[in-house]
Amino acid sequence: MTFLIQQTLVYTIPLMIVALAGVFAERSGIINIALDGIMIFGSFVGALAVYIMQTAGMFGDNTQIVFLIAMLVAALAGALFSLLLSFSAINLKADQTIGGTALNMLAPAVTLLIVKIVSMQDRLSMPKALGFIISNPDMNDVFKPFFDKMFISTYIVIALFVVLSILLYKTKYGLRLRACGEHPQAADSVGINVARMRYLGTTISGALAGLGGYIYIATTASGTAEGTVAGMGFLALAIMIFGNWKPVGIAFGSLLFGLLKCIGATYASLDINGDGIFALKELGLPIYFYNLVPYVVVLLVLAFTSKKSRAPKAEGIPYDKGQR
Amino acid sequence: MKKVLSLTLCLLMMLSVLGLAACNKTDTYEIAVVTDVGQLMDKGFNQGTWEGAESYALANGKTYKYYQPANGSDATDNDRIAAMRQAITNGAKIIIAPGFLQATAMTTVAKENPDVKFVFIDGWTLTDDDGNPLPNVTAVVYKEQESGYLAGYAAVMGGYRKLGYTGGGGGTNPACNRFGYGFVQGADAAAKDLGLEAGAVTVKYSYQHGANFSASPELQAQINGWYSGGTEVVFACGGSMFESVKAAAEANPGSKIIGVDVDQSFASELVITSAVKGLKESVAKVLDQYYNGKWESDLSGKTQNLGAADDATGLPIATSRIDGFTAEQYNELFAKIKSGAVTPKADVPTDANNGEWLKGFEIVIVEFE
Lengths: 324, 369
Description:
The complex is a heterodimer of chains A (324) and B (369). Chain A has helices at 2-27, 35-55, 63-91, 96-119, 144-147, 152-170, 172-182, 184-189, 194-220, 232-242, 247-266, 279-282, 287-305. Chain A is an all-alpha fold. Chain A has one domain (2-234). Chain A is globular and about 70 Å long. Chain B has two domains: 28-142, Response regulator (Rossmann fold), CATH 3.40.50.2300; 144-276 and 314-368, Response regulator (Rossmann fold, 3-Layer(aba) Sandwich). In chain B, 41% of the residues lie in helices and 18% in strands. Chain B has eleven helices and 13 strands. In chain B, strands 12-10-9-8-6-7-13 form a seven-stranded mixed beta sheet, sandwiched between helices. In chain B, strand 3 (94-98), helix 4 (103-112) and strand 4 form a beta-alpha-beta unit. In chain B, helix 2 runs parallel beside helix 9 (279-291) and helix 3 packs parallel to helix 4 (103-112). Classes of the chains: A mainly alpha (324), B alpha/beta (369). The A-B interface holds A 3, 7, 10-11, 116, 120-123, 125, 129, 131-132, 135, 149, 216, 219-222, 224, 226, 228, 230, 261-262, 264-266, 268-271, 281, 287 and B 39-43, 204, 206, 208-209, 214-222, 224-226, 228-229, 240, 243-244, 246-247, 250-251, 253, 267, 369.
């Protein structure tokens, strides 16, 4: 059980934060299809930062500080990278889907190019493991899933998720941001700078996606940057739609999807109640069944809930003052 | 002003295009490496081949270049054919292509270009439509089962009892299958030599999540499940899969990894040994034979099956981190394999993605996933 929860979090955490990244952009009126590209770029810059710090011997054995700095740097890189999208979408009024696709193509190419220059290889591996912030192997089963073998990123993402959700729904900034995604003309008429709000939304989005990208490689590939995040950004985009552009829905969606994906990958060694019997393996179902389940469940949930699903009304449309 | 500017830009563009075209004409590359799925610098298979070609070319003043078929891990035969033709257009005299997936592409291009020589790594002699071997192709295969055997033997001798194997190619890659089969046999043999009772050694065996040899959260989750369920060491058999196994091992203190193809001990402290094959050496050897005029006599249409006897399989014992398996023990066993006193079996079914063929070991129990 402990293992299942911990492993589910490995899937859920990056999905959750990147889906929230999507919400910030789309709520402000910009379709951010570039989530995947931004994740790749962020993950690479984060990895590069760790590589530089570790080879220079900075912070010695204090790997958690290195991890923290890497996350900050990745978020910064993601924010900067996303400025390309906001510039094309807001200042140049370009088609946002095409702009985002361009970013998705640019990111792996740039990443691989620099990785090759830096390491003379197609991937950038870390000299040292970052490890967990806390390990309590002897803790009782109630707290163990949440306080043993935890990455520092897990706590940070959960905290960020809560804070940003409150920001989006309970503050005037959040209201203004959302207004720009629903009816920017109305927002403009009461004196809100639509362009600035959209820049803000997309930049937060970029920062979160970059952060999610680095967390993804740090927790699943030991921090190795390879110019790919295995389509995690697109998955996050789907989770965002699944969650109806709302934080609670996203948290639920990424938890559900993460749990089902995790069961699919580990069913053969899952021992849920700790009695030494691998119940799911005993069933003798083929692996394809378990790999199918996450997608079937998501389809089913969507079939029953999609009637209520509503995208921000003005997303994807460049703001035109003349239409006021 | 604008007109002048745009005219200048146009001219500049034309000039640069001409310049590039000129470049292409003058540069030719005699030795070409066309890579398999995965990346050139994969710390394994492609890299070993490439380094072999590179070292020979540098030592003998030959020109060399690598070609990566388009579409990366999803490359089709058409992509490989295009890469090989590109190599020939650039003046390749000998093309080295690692990976058994290259068979169809190589047959096609080799028939088109009888004057160009082809080296097929990890595959058998290719034939034309009538079943005659193509004279301009030579093949090199390895007895991976021997390296796997040594790794499995060493692990059990070193005190590991719960082993794991995760292989690439989804059960259809012969090299990975031989590594895995040898690994289980070696573990069984060591258990017998130690006098362990039946079932004392278990091997978790899987081809899941490795179909295209890449790292993935699925693979990391699966292997993490193994380690947290008590598995002590996992043989990561396939390119970038290593990264996910490493991530899982780092999450579980005490977990170890066995590397593949080349010595991977430098990639992580957790690598206890690596089941290697001498790609670099054998590629350099074939090139040497070719340039010394031995193609017709030694290589044309033939397959070399390299193993311990050619020093093409083994473990890098100098960097081994297995206590309880000394260099003397290794040399003794290696000599036995070399002389043929111990011959690991290699009769793996074509589609190995099931547990049936891994049953019937005396002591080792294989838990197939």
